[in-house]
Amino acid sequence: MREETTLEATIGRLLWTGTHNSRPASYFLMTDVRGEAELSGDEAKADGPRNSYKLMWVTAADIDALNLHPAAIREPLARLLQP
After folding, report:
1. How many CB atoms lie within 10 A of CB 13?
2. Which segments of 21-55 are extended strands (E)?
3. By C-alpha distance, which of 61, 59, 62, 63 is closest to 74?
4. SS percent in the chain: helix, strand, coil, step 5
């Protein structure tokens, strides 16, 4: 999280495991988030007209419209964000 956003956080519970770009991937709930979100690392270097990276705070209603990848993470994220 720090490498890509400059934010610091505590790793909470595991949300999902699967594959992304043919590689194993794990997604965790992050708690106690601290700092100001700022794009950094390889994503900041690659950001441009043909490859866009944006940091966003979203609600559960926004998940489907974001076209997140891998697609299998969308439902668990939306479920987590439901009130």
Report:
1. 9
2. 23-34
3. 63
4. 35, 35, 35
Domain count, the chain: 1
- Helix ranges restricted to H, the chain: 2-5, 41-46, 63-66, 74-81
> Angle at CA 25, nearest 5°, toward 21 and 31?
135
Specify the residue for token string 């965790």: 28
Walk along the chain (83 residues) and give the pLDDT tens digit of each residue: 888 888 999 999 888 898 888 999 998 888 999 999 888 888 888 888 888 777 888 777 787 788 888 888 888 888 877 77
pTM: 0.64
Domain that holds residue 72: 2-81
